[in-house]
Design brief:
Elements: E1 14-19, H1 27-36, E2 44-50, E3 60-65, H2 68-71, H3 74-78, E4 84-90, E5 105-109, E6 112-122, H4 125-134, H5 144-156, H6 162-172, E7 175-183, E8 186-191, E9 200-204, E10 207-211, H7 214-219, E11 223-227, E12 233-237, E13 240-244, E14 254-255, H8 257-262, E15 268-269, E16 272-273, H9 274-288, E17 295-298, H10 304-314, E18 322-324, H11 337-347, E19 348-350, H12 352-355, E20 359-364, H13 371-382, E21 387-392, H14 420-427, E22 431-434, H15 441-444, E23 449-450, H16 452-455
Cofactor: Mg(2+); [4Fe-4S] cluster
Pfam family, one: GATase_7
Function: Catalyzes the formation of phosphoribosylamine from phosphoribosylpyrophosphate (PRPP) and glutamine.
Length: about 475
């Protein structure tokens, strides 16, 4: 069978905001916060800052295509003066990958300035855009984030304050969102009512931060205070923190892929430590799909914690079978199919003494097209592995996600057109076991989860969404 190039499940976006009431510049802290969120988006990034002690409307921003350390140099950061700011790392889910769509979005309007960074995806984008177009709005991006910013600006004209404008806007938008917003004197965080997207609150000395993940707080030496509640609007000013929970509700649906794949290992989201969740995933795989083997190994880096969990639960030793080359750039040119396949061997190389003569259990968090897994199995067997049994710490992807997780179309999903046994044969494994749907909950205890991309049961009405990824 001819293999197509493997495509990955893409991360979402990462947001970070900070307010320093003492007046110190916050751009360096945003830089380090965004660097720790780089795994959530590598296409573009940006920082917007303002001085809350200066005149209103003094927002200063810099954005660019590429990684945080590529876009921001020391000179650039030194020119970003302000004690209030927000930052963003982006992977495009709505809107093309170009500089116009880079965030934060900065608006100048009748009430002043607004900088907004958004992680997530709306499901009523078409109707919101139509409403704005009918009132003469002119768009500079193709993102749903711009719609949120415009509605806040429009609502602010008649609202008593920006928090009221944000509340009115949040009542209009539907979907998944974690927002950090800087107005001239306030830092505001907003989380969607279902809690699909993560958002947390931190503190360092007198400064407060809002971030997508707790690892961003640790990166700047800040203390994790708590997760922002689903539906909560948190406002930080020189007078402290206020909270509005008018949109909070009992129903919740936290994205399971934060725990399977997206979040960094050292983060804790909604009370669940990511490393522990992935260890439990491996243990569930071991219980569901036991096999006689000599060694459990993980695909770096995403499959290693689940492999460790499988090893601990099964009693089969855990080992490192691959050396990962950290210096293969993300922009490595792969113009032909042959060169695309060779790129796997450039990134990962088998440690032959570890696998020679061994029956291997190979653990990863997903199989999308099957190409990468097939290549890895061939490499293991060429290095002397007697057999390779594949275990996957997520169920097969079968449905599109409308909330910001860029799962490829059905044409690219091997599980949408092949049975597990057919996939096993295609990738060349002796056996294959996917995480069972009923075992997913064991990763996160009683936390309510969204797993719509796995079972097709969406936590909200998505009939008005115009982007059908099945087509």
């Amino acid at each position: 069978m001819e293999f197509l190039p493997e495509c990955e499940i893409k991360e979402e976006c990462g947001v970070f905001g900070i307010f320093n009431p003492d007046g110190g510049d916050v751009a360096p802290s945003i830089y380090y916060g965004l660097s720790s969120l780089q795994h959530r988006g590598q296409e573009s990034c940006g920082i917007a800052v303002c001085d809350t002690m200066g005149p209103k409307g003094n927002m200063n921003a810099h954005k660019g295509m590429g990684l945080v350390n590529e876009v921001f140099k020391e000179e650039t950061l030194n020119n970003l003066h302000g004690n209030l700011g927000v930052g963003h790392v982006r992977y495009s889910t709505t809107g093309a990958a170009n500089i116009n769509n880079a965030q934060p979005l900065v608006l100048n309007y009748i009430k002043g300035t607004l900088a907004l960074a958004h992680n997530g995806n709306l499901v009523n984008t078409a109707e919101l855009r139509s409403e704005l177009e009918r009132t003469g709005a002119i768009f500079h991006t193709t993102t749903d984030s711009e719609l949120i910013a415009y509605f806040i600006a429009r609502e602010r004209v008649n609202a008593h304050n920006v928090e009221e404008a944000i509340l009115h806007t949040a009542k209009k938008i539907r979907g998944a969102y974690g927002l950090v917003i800087a107005s001239p004197r306030k830092l505001i965080g907003v989380r969607d009512p279902l809690g699909l997207k993560p958002l947390c609150l931190g503190k360092r000395d007198g400064s407060y931060m809002i971030a997508s993940e707790s690892c961003a707080l640790s990166a700047i030496g800040a203390e994790f205070i708590r997760d922002i509640r689903p539906g909560e609007i948190v406002t930080i000013t020189k007078d402290g923190i206020t909270s509005n929970c008018q949109l909070c509700q009992e129903k919740r649906a936290h994205c399971i892929f934060e725990y399977i794949y997206f979040a960094r290992l050292d983060s804790t989201i909604d009370g669940i430590n990511i490393y522990d969740a992935r260890i439990r995933a491996g243990a569930a795989l071991a219980a569901a799909y036991p096999v006689d083997a000599d060694l459990v190994v993980g695909v770096p880096d995403s499959g290693i914690p689940a492999a460790k969990g499988y090893s601990e639960a099964s009693g089969i030793p855990f080992g490192i079978a691959f050396y990962k080359n950290s210096y293969v750039g993300r922009t490595f040119i792969k113009p032909t199919q042959k060169e695309r396949e060779s790129s796997v061997r450039l990134k990962l190389n088998v440690l032959e003494p570890v696998v020679r003569g061994k029956r291997i259990i190979l653990v990863d968090d997903s199989i999308v097209r099957g190409t990468t897994m097939a290549n890895l199995i061939r490499m293991l067997k060429k290095a002397g592995a007697v057999s390779v049994h594949v275990r996957v710490s997520s169920p097969p992807f079968l449905y599109p996600c409308y909330f910001g997780t860029d799962i490829p179309s059905n044409k690219q999903l091997i599980a949408s057109s092949h049975t597990a046994d057919e996939i096993r044969e295609i990738i060349g494994a002796e056996s294959l076991g996917y995480m069972k749907l009923e075992d997913l909950q064991s990763m996160v205890g009683e936390l309510p989860i969204c797993r719509a991309c796995l079972d097709g049961k969406y936590p909200m009405d998505i009939t008005g969404h115009t982007e059908d990824k099945k087509q």
